[in-house]
């Protein structure tokens, strides 16, 4: 999808959201598309480049669970944005895989759908607004935490916690976020969140990993690339550059470039 089409998608999402109809602009899921467990078997052992390419292709072709498609309004003071109900996943409602990925891949998917990645402040707001807050389920640190079998095992743990309940869900992943600090630390991924039941994040904003590091605890939640502020719609990127609006959406204040470079 071209940048012009992505911009049009963002506008359509914002208009639809304002009217009460909120959906990610994805094609219907093909009944023959791989389930989450089948997809996990297909990508296990692939290089990171190959794995991320497959993840992006499956998501953009519509191979995502039905419960992931609806967008939910999240209000922060005078600003409203719309958030996906869960982290990006491949598969069906009955059998899906939550898919950690490079931030550049996440940005590519967001751009293609006219969406964006959240700030830490927006992640806090999503947790506060969530219909279902799942307690974190950490796995003991080790080299296996970056492997597909552990991604699948953690997805199943989350599924057991969720028990098919819908709505806006939070608490079960660290978010890949945008941050002002990324401008000074290129090649890094910013992660934040994994909130405890009292609302405090296990993971403060952290940029210690390169973009090639992704473990089972990382999640990509899309948010609208357009926000409503004081009754008017404007791009999220513009709001984050506005000294008056940025503090509402960002603990860091103004963020000049609220995105990752595309790989």
**Number of beta-strand segments:** 14
- Describe the biggest sheet? 4 strands, antiparallel
Helix percent reads 25-40%
Major sheet: arrangement of strands = 1-2-13-14
Provide the succession of SSEs.
HHHEEEEHEHEHEEEEEEEEHH
Globally, the shape reads globular
Roughly how many Å is the radius of gyration? 17 Å
Beta-strand residue fraction: 15-25%
Helical stretch tally: 8
Contiguous uncertain segments of 5+ residues = 17-21
- Number of folding domains? 1
Query: Structural class of the helices, strands and pairings?
Result: alpha+beta
Oligomeric nature of the chains: single chain
- Average pLDDT confidence is 93
Distance between the termini: 15 Å
Mind sketching the topology for me?
Elements: H1 3-19, H2 36-43, H3 48-60, E1 72-76, E2 79-83, E3 89-91, E4 96-98, H4 103-112, E5 115-116, H5 120-129, E6 132-133, H6 148-162, E7 169-170, E8 174-177, E9 188-195, E10 201-210, E11 218-219, E12 223-224, E13 226-229, E14 232-235, H7 236-241, H8 246-249
Parallel strand pairs: 6-7, 8-11
Antiparallel strand pairs: 1-2, 2-13, 3-4, 5-12, 8-9, 9-10, 13-14
Helix pairs in contact: 2-6, 3-4
């Amino acid at each position: 999808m071209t940048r012009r089409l992505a911009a049009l998608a963002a506008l359509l999402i914002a208009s639809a959201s304002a009217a009460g109809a909120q959906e990610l602009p994805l094609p219907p899921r093909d009944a023959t598309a791989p389930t989450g467990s089948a997809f996990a078997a297909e990508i296990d052992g692939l290089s990171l480049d190959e794995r991320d390419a497959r993840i992006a292709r499956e998501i953009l072709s519509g191979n995502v669970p039905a419960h992931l498609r609806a967008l939910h309004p999240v209000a922060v003071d005078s600003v409203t944005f719309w958030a996906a109900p869960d982290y990006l996943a491949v598969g069906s409602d009955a059998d899906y895989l939550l898919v950690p990925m490079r931030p550049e891949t996440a940005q590519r998917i967001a751009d293609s759908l006219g969406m964006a990645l959240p700030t830490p402040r927006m992640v806090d707001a999503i947790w506060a607004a969530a219909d279902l807050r799942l307690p974190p389920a950490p796995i003991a640190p080790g080299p296996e935490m970056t492997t597909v079998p552990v991604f699948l095992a953690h997805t199943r743990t989350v599924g057991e916690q969720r028990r098919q309940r819908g709505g806006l869900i939070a608490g079960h992943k660290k978010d890949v976020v945008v941050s002002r600090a990324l401008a000074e630390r290129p090649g890094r991924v910013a992660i934040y969140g994994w909130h405890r039941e009292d609302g405090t994040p296990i993971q403060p904003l952290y940029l210690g990993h390169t973009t090639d590091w992704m473990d089972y605890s990382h999640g990509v939640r899309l948010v609208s690339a357009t926000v409503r502020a004081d009754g008017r719609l404007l791009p999220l990127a513009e709001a984050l550059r506005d000294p008056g609006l940025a503090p509402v959406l960002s603990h860091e204040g103004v963020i000049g470039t609220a995105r990752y470079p595309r790989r």
